[in-house]
Amino acid sequence: MSVFSRTRLPATMLALLLLGASAGAGASAYGYSYNNVFGLTISNPSGAITVLNNVDLSRTTATLNGRSVIRGGSNIIDAPQATVGAVSKGENDFSRQGMGGSAYSRGEAQIISSQIPPFPPGSTSTNTANAAEAFLPGMGSADASGRNGSTTAMAVNLVVGEPGATIAFNFQAAPFMQLYLDATAGKGSSVTANMTLSFSIIDASGQIVFNWTPDGLIGSGILGGTELADGANLNTGYAQTPLTNGSLFTYDRIGCGAPTGNGTGTGCDGSFSALSDNLVAGNYTLVLDIKNSVDLIFAPQTTPIPAPGTLALLGLGLLGLALIRHHC
After folding, report:
1. Which of residues 261 and 210 earns the better pLDDT score?
2. Is residue 139 classed as helix, strand or coil in its secondary structure?
3. For the whole model, what pTM was predicted?
4. 186-213 as b/e, with b when 16 or more CB fall inside 10 Å?
């Protein structure tokens, strides 16, 4: 008896093995969300405003298949990068690591400079950058986030002869997002990428008297003020599911392309500007919150669908079986 007879596989079983290997070979999910806000100035064109205190926040998170890392928090201006898995990007590198290799998840956030209080000393504007990125080469789940913000207490004083004080916001931003879900993704699979940016002024009673969430449309996304420039939607999210999978989606409203270098260059941007309505005398709190996040879930299809080349592999497998039988 030939030794091959002891290891012979039925043709149907071999076909299923080949089919499963082909369907899972290119299985992957990827998400990347980034925003660089720079040249941010907060001023009061009318009236008088006194800053009482300020608390900055920089926080990063990363989760991969149930393992989580959280870094940073209040009174931190440069949160250490949160990493899980095969992260190759170094600290404060906001450019893409991209698809390929082993699974990873990373969150990055940094307040590079701050106007309130001046950091480094003498700073007259604020620069902050966030990035969240994750990749799954197969079955699993991952999420990541990068968040920067500040909470500033201030007193608004009326100047005799003026109806009140106003606060003006001006900045530039370069947002960018990408997401991908492989065509072999099964039910329950999804990739989402999100970004948010908001300014809020809250009075002593806790009422929001001003709120600005730039959405790319002049006059939209603002309460208690006037919007003067709105270069892109900075409060948006996109998702891919098995109904829309198989292609790479890119959000690049301003046309700056993917971040390069350390991801904080200021050579390309959109302009944003808003002015609050008159504020009556009293104490207020100004809150700035910027966040980027991604969330990935990949589950294989319950019934594998042949990918290109599957039939060729199946044919080779059947040919191999025929040769085995020939030698028996």
Report:
1. 210
2. coil
3. 0.84
4. beebbbbbbbbbbbbbbbeeeeebbbbb
- Whether residue 109 contacts residue 71, with contact meaning beta carbons closer than 8 Å, is answered with no
The DSSP 8-state label assigned to residue 304 in this structure reads -
CA distance 248 to 182: 9
Q: What are the start-end ranges of the H helices in the chain?
A: 11-25, 310-327
| CB-based contact 109:129 (threshold 8 Å) | yes
Residues with Cβ within 8 Å of 208's Cβ and at least 6 positions away in sequence, in order, are 200, 201, 202, 223, 224
Residue indicated by tokens 């999210």:
237
DSSP 8-class letter at 258: S
CA distances from 14 to 11, 24, 318 (A): 5, 16, 8
The total of other beta-carbon atoms located within 10 Å of residue 327's CB is: 9
Taking only the tens place, the pLDDT of each residue in 285-314 is 999 999 999 999 999 887 555 555 544 544
Residue of 42, 75, 111 whose CA lies nearest to 284? 42
Lowest mean pLDDT among 84-93, 104-113, 145-154, 240-249: 240-249
Count other C-beta atoms under 10 Å from residue 288's C-beta.
Answer: 23
Of the candidates 25, 34, 142, 37, the one whose C-alpha atom is nearest the C-alpha of residue 84 is 142
